[in-house]
Amino acid sequence: MSVSKKMSAFAEKSSWIRKMFEEGAKMKAQYGAENVFDFSLGNPDLPPPAEFDQVIQRIVSDSPAGSHAYMPNGGYPWVREAVAKRMSKEQGVEIDAADMLMTCGAAGAINITMKALLDPGDEVILLAPYFVEYNFYVDNHGGVCKVVNTDSEFNLDFKAIEEAITEKTKAVIINSPNNPTGQIYSKESLQQLGDLLRYIGEQYATTIYLISDEPYRKIVFGDNTVPGIFPAYRNSIVLSSYSKDLSLPGERIGYLAVHPEINEKALLLNALTMANRILGFVNAPALMQRVVAELQDATVDNTIYERRRNTFCKILSDAGFDFIPPKGALYIFPKTPIEDDVEFCRILQDEKILAVPGRGFGAPGYIRLAFCVEDAVIEAAAKPFARAFAKAIA
Prior knowledge:
Layout: H1 5-12, H2 16-31, E1 37-38, H3 50-61, H4 77-91, E2 100-103, H5 105-117, E3 123-128, H6 133-140, E4 144-149, H7 158-164, E5 169-175, H8 187-204, E6 209-213, E7 236-241, E8 254-258, H9 265-278, H10 286-292, H11 302-319, E9 331-332, H12 341-350, E10 353-354, E11 356-357, E12 367-370, H13 375-380, H14 382-393
Parallel strand pairs: 1-10, 3-4, 3-5, 5-6, 6-7
Antiparallel strand pairs: 2-8, 7-8, 9-12, 11-12
Helix pairs in contact: 3-10, 5-6, 5-9, 11-14, 12-14
């Protein structure tokens, strides 16, 4: 075999999101893109905010010598200072530029965090439903995933988390607002989780890290807010990107921040910085660092996503689906009318609808629908959804 057995197996079991995306490409070629309702991929379709175009054009036209050279592996100090200032307000804890690194997206941030923390066999708890790539990121660095279900409304199940923690547990990854459910963990639940990790860490005489993946922090609806994790737990790390709130997924620009009082902070930051280098990222993109430094308070027009969410919720409700309206992010996660979510996705495909089976997120019996598509696509899918639901329960 020309490739490793492990990677061959990974490719065979690859992300359902990508599988459905590829299936969508075939269907669009066969039926025409205008006749396919593709809700498979969380690829933001809104343009970046107007300030982005203004800032990037000015920066590109004024690029002194060295603008595209290497910088410290953790990123430009003045960029980290700008991000730290905004994050200090979000987290309610004073964060210094030295507590941060700029990264190649949130995925890069997770990978360098896993590289810095994990020894072979260390366990990382994932809360289902979860972003499927977490499995690969943990495995990349010798870790072992332990999946713990959330409750019936996708909130934290503390009893299940406590039962899953062992002396090998190194970290818990949370994602709020959540992909794929849109759930937001409350301030009280984060405090309870922090208390639990603190207590069990003391029992095992170890540090259990809480890692919060927050690329959807600014994509929230109604009067919902996203509480910070730093006030809840000292041994925590926040990581994020500008892929969603600035609609820049292809630019691969993100960051992470460690709690200013985290255990062995200097040692951890050195490990993170070295991981950024030796994993081949070297540093986050220079141009994008300079751009986002000036856009800390900017975001896409969130009212458009909220309008689409509301339209989609009505369509699904009218068709008979059972679901919890998302509080944030770009997805709805309804239950399937039959037990087999993969089979239901096939029924949807008969109606030219593309959805992702919930089992791809560790939650069979659901589907994920991304509403980062044009309003007209969502509206035109109303009758196809109703037909698919009726066909499934017939």
